[in-house]
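Today's session is about reading a structure prediction critically. Students often jump straight to the picture, but the first step is always the sequence itself: look for stretches that repeat, for charged clusters, for runs of hydrophobic residues. Only then move on to the predicted structure, which in these notes is written as discrete structure tokens rather than atom positions. Here is the chain we will use throughout the hour.
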Amino acid sequence: MQQKFSQLMSRFSLKSIIIFIVLLTTLISLILSSIYLERYVVQNEYRYAKDKMSTIAKVFATDEQVKNALINDETSKNIQELSLEIAKLSNMDFIVVLDKELIRLSHPDPNAIGQHFSDLDDARRALNGDAHFSQKKGILGDGIRFFVPVKDENHRIIGVICAGITLDTLQSDISNIQIKVALILLIGLVIGIIGALISSKAIKHILLGLEPGDISRLVQEKQLINDEINEGIIAINKDKDITLINQAAVNLLTSLDSSFQLAENNKIDTQLYTVFFKKCFTSKQKQTDQELLLNTTTFIATTSPVMIRNVFNGAVVTFRDQSEMSQLIHTLSGTQQYIDALRAQTHEFMNKTHVIMGLIEQEKYDLVQEYIQQISHDYKQEVGYVTDIIKSPAIAGFILGKINEAKEQTVSLTLNPTSFLPDLEMDNYVHKIIQILGNLLDNAIDATKNQHTKQITLSLSYEVEGHILIIEVIDSGYGIQSSDIDKLFQKGFSTKGAGRGYGLHAIYRIVNEHGGLIDITNNNDNTGATVYIELPLSRKGEKNERSNY
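Below is the predicted structure for this chain, in token form.
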């Protein structure tokens, strides 16, 4: 039923709906008002007529001419004229003077003068001293009349005054008032129509010209979009009330603190306001791609002011857990490390292939056999021992690639024979381990390739009881300046120029996320540096308090 009504209403424009509603409301109000006014007017007119009749009759009963005429028991022309004049001035239909015998001394119809009153019983009540109203039919027709006794100086009743108005006259007066009321109501209806037109135009301007169907569709689309977006969205007004929040924001924030009251129309929590909105509220400027720390979680957030007709009306923030983005970055970085390692191995393989092809073309088959044996021997020495102690194929292949890459730059990269890494089920960690190894070894190669001694030693071991991977890289490079130690893990800091300084920062983030340890020191002989890392592979989310650099 509701759906059918909505479909019906969607066929009409907003202007038509507003005009219809306003007119319907106005019309109902006017009809109810007219019913009430009609009853009020009729009742008030009857009350006014009675008050007027009683007042005129009582005043007329005190007139000396009337008293003298009744005392002398005479029909006076002056009484007739006086009665007609008073009746005319007071808009009464008749004022009749009756003597003690209830004979008319005055009457609008001269032929009735000298005759008995038409309803003797009704008039006789006044002779008994009872002033009263009566609604009966007289010779002038149906009407309302008031009887009052006339008393002499000794307070003896000497006659009766009857003042009255016919129902026709009352109805005529009521009709005149009703016409005026109807005119006023009509004016009210016209004003309502004008108001409806103005209101519809103003409301449509406020709604940016959207029709009801457009508004309904936009609301549904907004809700759908909000539910489908992975980023959290929160909008607040200038009073810090939440005006919009999507489910992703609720999920992200309640996972940190279940006490957050995250619902529309609620006040934004003070902590959330301080982290996400305070800076935007102060500057009234857009804050893009901020790294914001809430509890132990870092968010990437963009906060924008909400300006309505150039007036600040609040702000909206979109945010996402940085760890999700870091995971993507780690994956991409690990992939790049794979590519570099494969490129180095491919280059080494192509060099050996070219040698073999050259010897074959020269038909030096003995040398070909000898060279292949040498390659086999080198493989067992360089490759075999790596795969024997590093059981993870991906990591072993990566290390071999780095060994060949270092060799191309005349740097000796050696895997410590005491190293050992079992073939663990750690698919979720391979990219991170490769990223750490890649950045450490790249830094070590850069630091040693221009030195006299070009030696790098890599050690890997795994602590089974604590599920901790231990990585140690020792190089013979130029070491670390004491002034740079406190800046090593800052994002963008590098001694190699602009556009660098992200490798150690990425390593620090990974280690820190897993509650690990990282330590960088210069070697005792002041040649090169040692990087020591402990990376737990079974827990995540504990803030690192052990890092030392």
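Discussion point for the tutorial: Residues 539-549 have pLDDT under 50 and may be disordered.
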